[in-house]
Amino acid sequence: MSLHAINEDLKKLLESLPFFIQEHLKNHGNQEKLIEIVMDLGRRPEARFLTGPEYLSQKIISWQDLDYITKRINKFNNENRAGIERTLHRISCIRNRQFLINGLTCRVGRAVFGTICVIRDLLECGESILILGKPGIGKTTIIREIARVISDEMEKRVIIIDTSNEIGGDSDIPHSGIGRARRMQVEKAELQHETMLQAVENHMPEVIVIDEIGTELEALAVRTIAEKGVQLVGTTHGNCLENLIKNPVLVNLIGGIQYVTLSDDEAKRRGTQKSILERKFYPTFQTIIEINAQNSWTIHEDVKNSIDLLLQGNFTIVQTRRFYLTEKTIISYNPVQTTSIFQNLLDLQSQNFLRSKVNTWKNLINPKYFIVDNLKIKNLQIYVYSISSNLIKEIITKIGANLSVTNDIRKASLIIALKRHIQQNSKLNQISKQYKIPIYHVSQNNIYQIFKILKEII
């Protein structure tokens, strides 16, 4: 894949540094691989490249050097981060007990065109995507380019929730690297979840881009947004899908897990222990990308299936995509044994986040009570109004019916709606009559009524 850095603005960062550091880096032959510059009081300045670190001078950093830099950049926020106007660079500070700055980390920000060509097909599917990777591996660069591609090339309404200003830059005018996407800045990191919900309520986005989902409130807000039919693109820290399963705060992003005790007959039928782990509900993100290296990504195109296989301790097929500067992309599929992962999770069953009651409706929609495998029906598209689409998807998955949920009412075979809301929506009733789409009512948004409706449909 051919990568082209756009508007790197490294010069603006170098101009903010002391002269002796500027001169060394201006003439350095490895500028394009520079990741960050580290300056600590009483130590030699250090540059960190993709190839490794190196000292920039024999001179040690003084109070005057640190003061020289802080006067040439924006003010530090409550998270001890600052930036340079109209660039993507980020400067973070370390303070002593007197709250004086005694260390600086200057991370080089780059907008890179072409980084996501390898997953363009996943973007066009319109499903929510979560990107996993360790710090500094390039997650922010990837979602910035995703925002640009979706807004510019796919012409969708995109809102970026920019908590630390790393996606759109540290100024009121966002960096050109985000394309036509709009950017909402977050006043405080702990208010990120509120800004996410405001974006949906006030600006009618089709896609929301979020960097570093890390708290329980943010995970809850993400799930709420997904149920409103908005596509999500987010990042979080973690090396692989198994890390999310073991994370009590973020596990709900992939459907949550619960500790279930089976009857003797059911355990025998499944060939498992009586105490097992199961997924609670439909995952918020349908696709997960693990950034193993800058040119090697692991793709989970069906997160629901991957989670179920991991919890069952079965083999799962992992898709790996590797791309090179020769414009060559290699996609391979490899089987992975997951038994050890499952066993590790059973060892964690005493933790509170794995303790929950057996799902009260599980037996109701168990395939042995409701068999549709032999039914010869076409794939029916369901349009959902005022009801959780994820709840319906979960029921459809459990019963194995040939049904799917659509956001386009013109493609729908039928409409399932909350009765009191559909009566007040004359426009939806008009569209139903125009396209001859039947409407099924439920009086309450609960699993029993929805299951009954789906049973009638089939």
TrEMBL record:
Q: What residue intervals traverse the membrane?
A: none
> Where in the numbering of this chain does the AAA+ ATPase domain appear?
125-281
List the Gene3D superfamilies hit by this protein, alphabetically: P-loop containing nucleotide triphosphate hydrolases
Question: Which keywords does this Swiss-Prot/TrEMBL entry list?
Answer: ATP-binding, Chloroplast, Nucleotide-binding, Plastid
Q: InterPro entries of this UniProt entry?
A: AAA+_ATPase (IPR003593), P-loop_NTPase (IPR027417), PTPase_dom (IPR058670), Spore_III_AA_AAA+_ATPase (IPR045735)
CDD domains in UniProt = AAA (cd00009)
Q: Name one Pfam family in it.
A: Spore_III_AA
The molecular function terms in GO held by this entry are: ATP binding
Task: Please verify whether the record's keywords include Chloroplast.
Answer: yes
What is the protein's name according to its record?
AAA+ ATPase domain-containing protein
Tell me which species this is from: Toxarium undulatum
- Higher taxonomy: Eukaryota, Sar, Stramenopiles, Ochrophyta, Bacillariophyta
**Gene from which this protein is expressed:** ycf45
